[in-house]
Amino acid sequence: QVQLVESGGGVVQAGGSLRLSCAASGRTFSNYDMGWFRQAPGKEREFVARITRSWALSGGRTSYADSVKGRFTISRDNAKTTVYLQMNSLKPEDTAVYYCNSDSQNLPWGQGTQVTVSS
């Protein structure tokens, strides 16, 4: 069973950048389409970005929520069993706890990483 540990969150001013990491245990990481999700206070968890499985060390097709398109970039490193989320031009409305999971969300959820964007 793959286990997920997110890191890289923090407090940043609007317009700033952060890079989130999601380290996955387990040898089958490269078999999964992976996604980033976020949950703001009082709101449902929502999709942010996905990257398809890749048999190469990196790569995969990507897609994004409209709210982050052009600002966020998802990537993966299968050798490190890690998926990343580069977040640029951050806005206060990006404030949330960020989680990674398989695209079908069928893995145990990690603890997430808090991102706070101040105006």
Task: Record the SSE blueprint.
Blueprint: E1 4-7, E2 10-13, E3 18-24, E4 34-39, E5 46-51, E6 62-64, E7 72-77, E8 82-87, E9 96-102, E10 113-118
Parallel strand pairs: 2-10
Antiparallel strand pairs: 1-3, 3-8, 4-5, 4-9, 5-6, 7-8, 9-10
Descriptive report:
It is a single chain. With 119 residues, this protein is mostly beta strands. Helices cover 0% and strands 46% of the residues. The chain contains no helices and ten strands. The strands form two sheets. It has a six-stranded mixed beta sheet, with no helix packed on it. The chain has a four-stranded antiparallel beta sheet with strand order 1-3-8-7, with no helix packed on it. A hairpin with a 4-residue loop joins β7 and β8. It is globular and about 40 Å long. It starts with a strand and ends with a strand. The mean pLDDT is 94.
Strand order of the largest sheet: 2-10-9-4-5-6
Regions with pLDDT < 50 over 5+ consecutive residues? none
Q: Report the strand count.
A: 10
CA radius of gyration is 13 Å
- Coarse shape: globular
Helicity, as a percent range:
under 10%
**What is the succession of H and E elements?**
EEEEEEEEEE
Strand content: over 45%
Average the pLDDT over all residues and give the rounded result: 94
End-to-end span in angstroms? 40 Å
Structural class: mainly beta
Largest sheet: 6 strands, mixed
Count of helical regions: 0
